[in-house]
């Protein structure tokens, strides 16, 4: 399967994960100027199976905090940096697993533990927009 | 009837979410133990009165698949119901985990109510 075909499922996967686990629904794109000057967080993992590759998600830090807050059901001010990172890791794991599940129904994959990508990449992929934020996901095959 | 649950997942965030979902579900949980991987899970299973194991698959040191293999070789642990909670929804993986003795399989992401329903079904079947 081509990377373009795999990438086509990124939007669906992000929607399923954010709706189910964070109750975030797609909406109008937020004005990106809102996040000007904000650092971005990116978490990546590699997958191994019938297809080998790397997958990543990234979001402006305030958006990652909001996602973590919704995921854990905690007030954003109570969240540690570590907790936000753990949620981004799990989000990467779930979105990637979801993408591979859509593309390869009958083949199991092994996913490595997600890690922080620094500096943040400029990899292009799909973008999930809602009124309060944006999440970008990308995939590359070897 | 209340049950003791062991959650096995290398993601602290996911363990916390599963714990919260269980508390809010109609599955009556008495005590909730947590393990970061299969090795920790086996340590807990040998000393704590666990009624059901909820395990991820991809974990460091010992995967969920290896955990099921180890449990299946133990007279007592092989009797414990295990439910897999994983991002891997492939038919190949589900078949493999079922063959190793898993009694249920929930894919991430999941709607909160899904887990409680699946757990209650597991004990009705038992």
The main sheet of chain B comes to: 5 strands, parallel
Q: Which percent range describes the beta-strand content of chain B?
A: 15-25%
Total domain count of chain B: 1
**Number of helices, where a helix is a run of at least 4 consecutive DSSP H or I residues of chain A:** 4
Question: What secondary-structure arrangement, pairings included, does this model have?
Answer:
The complex is a heterodimer of chains A (142) and B (126).
Chain A: H1 3-7, H2 10-22, E1 40-48, E2 53-60, H3 61-72, H4 81-103, E3 110-111, E4 115-116, E5 126-130, E6 133-141
Antiparallel strand pairs in A: 1-2, 1-3, 1-4, 2-6, 5-6
Chain B: E1 3-8, H1 12-24, E2 29-35, H2 38-47, E3 52-55, H3 64-72, E4 82-86, H4 91-99, E5 104-107, H5 112-125
Can you tell me about this structure?
The complex is a heterodimer of chains A (142) and B (126). Chain A is α+β, with helices and mostly antiparallel strands and 142 residues long. Chain A has helices at 3-7, 10-22, 61-72, 81-103, and strands spanning 40-48, 53-60, 110-111, 115-116, 126-130, 133-141. In chain A, strands 1, 2, 3, 4, 5 and 6 form a six-stranded antiparallel beta sheet that branches. In chain A, a hairpin with a 4-residue loop joins strand 1 and strand 2. In chain A, helix 2 (10-22) packs across helix 4 (81-103). The longest helix of chain B is centred in the C-terminal third of the chain and has 14 residues, at 112-125. Chain B is α/β, with parallel strands linked by helices and 126 residues long. In chain B, strand 4, helix 4 (91-99) and strand 5 form a beta-alpha-beta unit. In chain B, helix 1 packs across helix 5 and helix 2 packs parallel to helix 3 (64-72). Chain B has a single domain (3-120), classed as Response regulator (Rossmann fold, 3-Layer(aba) Sandwich). Classes of the chains: A alpha+beta (142), B alpha/beta (126). The interface between A and B is medium-sized, with 31 and 24 residues.
């Amino acid at each position: 399967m081509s990377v373009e075909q795999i990438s086509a499922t990124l939007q669906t996967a992000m929607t399923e994960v954010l709706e189910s686990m964070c109750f975030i629904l797609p909406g109008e794109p937020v004005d990106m100027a809102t996040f000007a000057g904000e650092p971005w967080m990116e978490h990546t993992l590699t997958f191994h199976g019938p297809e080998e590759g790397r997958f990543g998600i990234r979001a402006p830090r305030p958006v990652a905090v909001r996602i973590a807050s919704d995921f854990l059901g905690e007030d954003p001010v109570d969240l540690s940096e570590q907790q936000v990172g753990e949620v981004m890791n799990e989000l990467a794991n779930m979105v990637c697993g979801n993408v591979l599940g859509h593309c390869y129904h009958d083949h199991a994959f092994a996913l490595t533990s997600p890690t922080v990508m620094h500096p943040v990449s400029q990899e292009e992929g799909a973008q999930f927009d809602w009124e309060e934020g944006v999440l970008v996901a990308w995939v590359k095959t070897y | 009837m209340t049950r003791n649950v062991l959650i096995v997942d290398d993601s602290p965030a996911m363990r916390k979410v599963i714990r919260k979902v269980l508390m809010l579900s109609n599955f009556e949980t008495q005590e909730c133990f947590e393990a970061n991987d299969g090795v920790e899970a086996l340590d807990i299973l040998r000393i704590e009165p666990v009624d059901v194991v909820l395990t991820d698959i991809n974990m460091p040191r010992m995967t969920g698949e290896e955990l099921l293999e180890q449990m299946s070789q133990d007279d007592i642990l092989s009797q414990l119901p295990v439910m897999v909670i994983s991002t891997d929804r492939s038919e190949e993986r589900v078949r493999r985990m079922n063959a190793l003795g898993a009694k249920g399989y929930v894919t991430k992401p999941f709607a909160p109510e899904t887990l409680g329903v699946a757990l209650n079904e597991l004990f009705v079947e038992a």
